[in-house]
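pipeline/complex-builder :: batch 7 item 3
reading input block
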Amino acid sequence: MKRILLLVLILGFAVICFGCSKKKVVKPEDAAIPSEQMEQQTTAPARDTDQNSRWIRPKEHVSEQDLALIQPEEGISKYKEEKVIFDDIYFDYDQYDIGADAESTIQDMASWLLKNMSSNVIIEGHCDDRGTNEYNLALGDRRAKAVRDYLTALGIAANRIETLSYGEEQPVCTEASEACWAKNRRAHFIMVR
Amino acid sequence: MAKITDKHVAGHKINIRHFTIQRCLQYFLLALVCPLLVLITTVARAKVYIDITSPAFTRFPIAIHDFSGSSGDRIADIIRNDLHFSGLFEIVDKAAFLEKPAQPFNPRNWTPLGIDAVVKGSVKSDAELIITASLFDVVDGKELFRKEYKADKDLLRPLAHSVSNDIYSTLTGAPGMFRSKIAFVGIDAQGRSIYIMDWDGYRRIKTGLKGHIILAPRWSKEGTKIVYSAEKNRRWGIYLLDFTNMVEKKIYSGPGTHIVGDFFPGGTTIVLSSSKTGTPDLYSMDIQDASFTKLSSSHGIEVSPAVSPDGKFIAFVSDKGGSPQIYIMRSDGSQAKRITFEGSYNTSPSWSPKGDKIVFSGRRGTNQIFTINPDGTDLMQLTHNGNNEDPSFSPDGLHIAFCSDRDGSRGVYIMRADGEAQQRITPPDIQASSPRWSPN
């Protein structure tokens, strides 16, 4: 038993010594190959080497000229604005409930819409900039919807009301003050035909 | 094993059985141990230079010589900056070097400076740019690689970044991210556009993608497409830019607000928040036929969905608990679990490439960048000044891009994933937001 163990130990030691004396030498030819594999992992569509893989030619994701030339779809506005203006209504910080002061404005709007059946309303929702852009976009949307719900409850057909959020992207003022922030937390109304 | 019958004398029988069993065991052990030893020694042959998974390590001292030839110093500077930003290397000052760029590599010129690896190379500029770069192991005194790179003359920076990638991957075993890009929304005097720049802020291009308002450019996981939300003429729409044909396509537009979240792996389905049926809810959408599948809905707000790298989970923001918090659910919309419990406002989640971390923006008075594990443990705050928002990880998971107004105007910043080395990479005359690091 002891002899076998000793044999195993000696064998193991010899193998380790033998192994350590031979370091892996990376020659230029086979260096190209691992690099290609790496490149494939990092830049999936962009790998491009010349025929014999001697030259590495990094391919660009997108070329500068191409990017600058992209034509965006413009589209035309389908709305014609009415001249009548209603006041903006305001919201509390991070909230989308309709306050008591806002109710009379919304009721006036409902009355006008009932008298002008060929017109519609776009409700814009806005926020102050203290939150993050995406959440504010959703918050503005939720504010617009709160007004929409109130209007439908007052008898205005849902297909006459559109909601649109601008989040914090279209402030009426930019100072970092309570007064300015309060002015930005608003719903704005555009009557259209 | 030999079968021993009862007919043998008791004592003698036992001795024989033990002897046989012993023998078998010994041979068995030998059979196990020998290949194991061979395996260990084989693995031991590949030298580990930098172990990026090890929590405590000293920076690897490397010397990058100016490349010989015109613009050789520029190339070397780009490589130095790349490797320095990774946080893994100590870039030794070239003023201390004993060996000149043109001299052949001699380890004896480097060992007295305590340097472990040396980078040397040359540049040739004919019809094209040709760079030759070598990486040397000082301790073993040999060349680890010599590679040649070719490109158009105006691609000097991508070429240098390719060299950095090869140095990085040879020494760490992991792919480098030095050719990655960052897309962001920029506002200048002409309005809002999507910009794309190198990860270090260079080669910034204003794309033709414009809108009255633009938000959230998001790369597909293969890096071949960008999807984003834009408001044009009082309508929100989802737009796609496919790099393979360089065309902007409107995928969907309609009443309500539609905010793009993220791509699923494969690049043909996206997840987004849309208020098309009333409240901001989460949907998956096939970009080829614009068909929607509702994933979740609530009385309040559900927004900012982010798909995990393996496509199995979605992190998102909901106020169903009374305030905006981060949740994770399965990709089919089931099993939503809240993961943030500190602070009253946690938004903008984004996954690390391995899916082991989520980075997000939490409001603690001002907005700050945090990381957290997907199970809600290990919350870490990474920024402390100004308002910091829209974070995303680099493709190697070691860095984070975000926007910050700490210097007055909003710009894109990058930092290491532990919060170190925070630096601005967009100029002050562009109001920059929604930065997103490319996946490769």
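note: The two ends of chain B are 59 Å apart (CA to CA).
queue -> next item
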